[in-house]
Amino acid sequence: xxxxxxxxxxxxSLIVGVIFGKIVSKKICAKVAKLQNPNLFVxxxxxGVNTGAIEGILTKLNTIGAQAFIVAISNIIGTTVIxxxxxxxxxxxxKLVIDSGGTLKIKTANIxxxxxxxxxxxxxxxxxxxxxxxxxxxxxxNIIREPLMLVxxxxxxxxxxxxTPAFDxxxxxxxxxxxxxxxxxxxVGLINSNLKIKEVFDSPWLLLLPLWTIIGTYLGxxxxxxxxxxxxxxxxxLSSGFGxxxxxxxxxxxxxxxxxxxxxxxxxxxxxxxxxxxxxFLAKFGNRMYYSAVCSGGATTMDVxxxxxxxxxxxxxxxxxxxxxxxxxxLVPFLIPLFF
Length: 340
Fold this sequence. Notes:
The protein has helices at about 1-25, 25-35, 35-50, 60-90, 115-120, 125-165, 175-190, 195-200, 210-220, 225, 230-240, 245-255, 260-285, 290-295, 305-315, 320-335, and strands at about 100, 100-105. The chain has a two-stranded antiparallel sheet with strand order 1-2. The chain is mainly alpha-helical. It is globular and about 60 Å long.
């Protein structure tokens, strides 16, 4: 009963955000949606403070990182395998990605020095080669910058709690209220994203994308108890963030499991980061790998990993990728409380 009450408050926060985004002007909606990031940083900081209250937490950080990586790898393996099997079955019955003009021939966009040489018909200059290398380095920095910033915010809160008395006043209930605010902003953000669901229905198979992600993630989670001390139920709960690290870790912490909350946060950060490297690799094997690519990204395909996926699998994948991310984003607040 307590779980249902807690869940209803979370869902209500999300719905209120959606309604607010519907009734206000687009300009106001966009401005309010931008408040999500500042609220997120505050929330994660206090999540770090809450984690810092765990006795002997500093000695457990290595273990937390290793277990989080196991969770992420297990989830991605399960998801990519199930999504690939689904794509093979569907490929026999229908085309994977449909454009308004027919079947879209998806091409990859992994530009290398040799590719440029072929296009230009001559050797690229030394300056041009340096420019390409600098571009790749910039992309890598952009990939890891945000996760590093978020992890740093949590560590700052944790260290201030452990080494100073500055947050002796802190009460875990503060995280709950900040979580409601975060979900409100998430609801506004969903409206601000202008997702056109109608386009997804042009290819009914794409409606099942979130299902493959959920099935694959949970099947992969069955590996976790074999490599960690956690039960199957805890493993499923840890995996239920589907890449949405900013919510999953906070929710689990708020439910009274700060250690598992930290593991969930890091595992979903790892999942997002690994997706950035996995998508270009999968794209080399053709459009049938779109399912595995988008499902590995989980909830992040509505925003963070969307440009990467559309770049490597074609512009027509943007709407189904956003749809996939939005559905998982909506489901996360429902699923996590079921396991704790």
